[in-house]
């Protein structure tokens, strides 16, 4: 009996050859190899990791027509060399936009690294004596927003008396090994600088055994070292807005960690050892490239808030609602997860009651504070989904 595309034995000699189509998006042409028997939905799944656009936010146009998900490439008359246009719906991107392997640094960082090191070594940041004395007295070195390119030498002279170093919101690129001189440091705020992998001394940072807060958000880091696990006193870790592709397995050694904020990176997976961080209360992994989470998230029984928006997630760890009995905030905005799926999880009812109770308290407080209460605010309880069942509203407000 004859079938479509060949004989019933389905042997390799009858399989369809692979074709290469070209998808135009954001000023570039993306080649994708795929079987002509595949559907447009399959093609969108291949496009997702290359563009950070979720499948439901993709519109593929060929010869002036929008291609339907159920069509095959053959029925859409796509052949090898065909050129399609991708239009992305606003708000349905993962991460920080299209990712390229050879992404260049911003223009202000394109200068030669070695040249900059020479220039930086010649510059000595001025330091007011009274300022240094104040640092020694209070233990707080506050230099946020001071237009610095290097850390003043006077900082290191504070030694063990320093408890807090805040050099956030500057243009600092290098964190030298001599930061280890601040041996009693508890809070290190390095966010919103120009820090590069080549110029951060992890040897110096991980020697700070009393460190409880480390903020490295809004820099240009692409990797974190395994030595991060040496910071066993760490309570809060902020690494959002970098270019991190992974987290080290040794993050599981941070057993006292309570807050992890790693949004707006390029994380495609989370190590299963995250389940060892049983003190975690809040985790923010939004705007990454995640398609799944490890089952060990169920070990985080103190977890209260989990932010997962703008990822390619299609499901959640099976024991999340059952085991994470304090979870009350769950942000699934712009993921592939539906309310029907959530209701199938064991423990959903308990979670639903907690989140309703939490937001009712917030609502009551808002009414108490404002006589001009806007009834439209009730939408956070009444409107969850569009007609297709997808989570389209910020579920940190409603879930």
TrEMBL record:
It holds the Pfam family LRR_8. Residues 19-90 form the Ubiquitin-like domain. One of its GO terms (biological process) is intracellular signal transduction. Keywords: Leucine-rich repeat, Repeat. Signal peptide: none annotated. Transmembrane segments: none annotated. This is LRR repeats and ubiquitin-like domain-containing protein At2g30105 isoform X1. It comes from Nelumbo nucifera (Sacred lotus). The gene is LOC104597302.
